[in-house]
Structure formats: C-alpha cells, structure tokens
Specification:
40% helix; two-stranded parallel sheet; alpha/beta; 12 strands; Rossmann fold; 17% strand; 284 residues
C-alpha cells in the first residue's frame, strides 16, 4: 500500500488545490489546518507525521499577510521558518520528502531578467526574510523540494483576482492599480499539478513554478475586467502613490527553465489560466 500525502494549510487556496489534484490522480492525501494542527508545535507535528508515516509532506501553510509581517515578524518567523524546521525533522524520522512553498519575495526585485534558482537572494521585507529562513529550514530535510512561486490566486483564501472582482461587483467604475511592479500571476490549480509532476520525477532542491508570461498588477487587473465584461476604467499608478508598510519587489519574474527541463513543459500562459479560473468560479 502506498504511503499517504500530508498537506498543511489545507483550507488555503493552494492547499485545497493540492488535495484536489491528488484526489484526481487517485492518491491518498490528508490535509490539516490550524483548527486541527498547530505547525508551530514541534510535538503536534511529530505526532501527526510519525503516526501517518507519509511518503510526502506538502507545506502550504504560511503567514502571508505581507504588511502585518512588518510589525509581527516574530509571529511570521514562527510559522514561516520555525514550523518548517519541525516539519523537516519529522520528515527525516519517517523518511518522507518535504515539499515547501516559497516566494518571489526572497529576491530584492532590482533585477531586469527573470530570476533563476541560483541567483543571489536579498529579501527586503519581513515576509521575505521569514520565507527565506523557511527555505533554509526545509533544506534540513534529507529529501526536500522548495518551490518558489508568485502572485497566487485560486479557490478559497484572499487574493488579487477576488479583490478586483469584489470592487466591480460593488459598482466600481474606476480602479487605480499599480503599474510598475512586474511578475507572473499563477493559478493554484496549475501550480498543484506541476508540484505533483515534480514529485513524480523525483525533483529536489529549488524549482521556480509560475504561469508562463509576465504582466504588471495593472495589466492583470485590466485582463480581469475584460474577461468579466465589466464597464470599468483601470488607471495605472505608481508604487510611490500607494505606500505600504512592506516593500514590494519591482521586478519578480521567475525563470522556469528548470521546471521545463524537469517535467517537459511550461505552465500555461497566465491569461489562459485566469480565463479558466474565472470561468470555473462563475459556475453554480
């Protein structure tokens, strides 16, 4: 009998997507979230993983409130880094592979070409710093895969697509959206499929996984408005016009050449992924 897959952060958008993708593939998977597992507790993590003896642990849990991390860096570190060390240690006990989800925020965003896995990291926010510590903790697992991704959206959880849609539903006709931050919007369903494909081929180390292509938040919002058929103007603004507590990377495009080599394909273009998500989320 094949050993199961365990997923943390199972109520979140990526956790849900991983569990759904596993079910479609006929894989036994179990998810936990804060109500049934405190991953900051070493004892709780040990008891869960040792009892289940999984072959794979996918850590989708994270403190993702980027601005809140600036004033609660200790709490963010407990979830984004210390808990990962607990997961790594427990995985080593049972011989499981740890798949840990990281972020484009480990880079400073000052680059002008897509970031490769081996490019120097230099986080400029508390969120980025704690996620980088999480990557380092994940590497203590004898078998590990660190997936860096960006600009996630999917079913469940809060994200940019949902925020734009809510504004449109509330009657907004003018949206002011930042146009000088560039990245790759990524659909959780596509990421989940690539994650399982990477596990299947025995990938290890760090792999960048995002939907193909790049845009700005303004471009992303404009496409959401177009696909929803909304009558709203999307006005480009600068980051300086919308100061936030945490600094955002100006350019956080991730190079996915290693992903393509490993699984033999790129993820679909971000516009195609967005259209599929909006179509699915509008279904009754």
């Amino acid at each position: 009998m094949q050993r199961p897959i365990l997923v943390t952060g199972s109520y979140g958008q990526l956790g849900r997507a991983v569990l759904a993708a596993a079910e479609i593939r006929g894989l036994e998977a179990e998810g936990r979230d804060l109500d049934t597992l405190d991953i900051t507790s070493r004892q709780a993590v040990d008891e869960w993983i040792v009892a289940a003896r999984p072959r794979l642990v996918v850590n989708c849990a994270a403190f993702t409130a980027v601005d809140d991390c600036e004033t609660a860096e200790g709490s963010a570190r407990a979830v984004n880094a210390d808990a990962v060390a607990h997961l790594s240690a427990a995985c080593n006990v049972v011989g499981a592979t740890l798949v840990h989800i990281s972020t484009d925020y480990v880079f400073d965003g000052a680059g002008s070409r897509p970031y490769r896995e081996d490019d120097p990291v230099a986080p400029t926010s508390a969120y980025g710093r704690t996620k980088l510590l999480g990557e380092q903790a994940a590497r203590s697992a004898h078998r590990h895969l660190v997936i860096r991704t960006a600009w996630l959206y999917g079913r469940g959880g809060r994200h940019f697509v949902g925020a734009i849609r809510r504004q449109l539903e509330d009657g907004a006709t003018r949206l002011r959206v930042v146009a000088d931050q560039i990245g790759s919007p990524t659909y959780c369903d596509d990421l989940a499929e690539a994650l399982l494909d990477l596990v299947e081929v025995g990938a290890s180390g760090v792999v960048h996984v995002v939907n193909d292509g790049t845009t700005s938040w303004h471009g992303f919002a404009s496409e959401i408005v177009r696909l929803l058929g909304a009558d709203a103007e999307v006005i480009p603004v600068t980051t300086a016009e919308f100061p936030r507590p945490a600094r955002r990377p100006a350019y956080s495009v991730l190079d996915t050449a290693r992903l393509t080599t490993l699984i033999g394909r790129r993820l679909p273009p971000w516009g195609d992924a967005l259209a599929r998500y909006l179509e699915a989320s509008c279904e009754p």
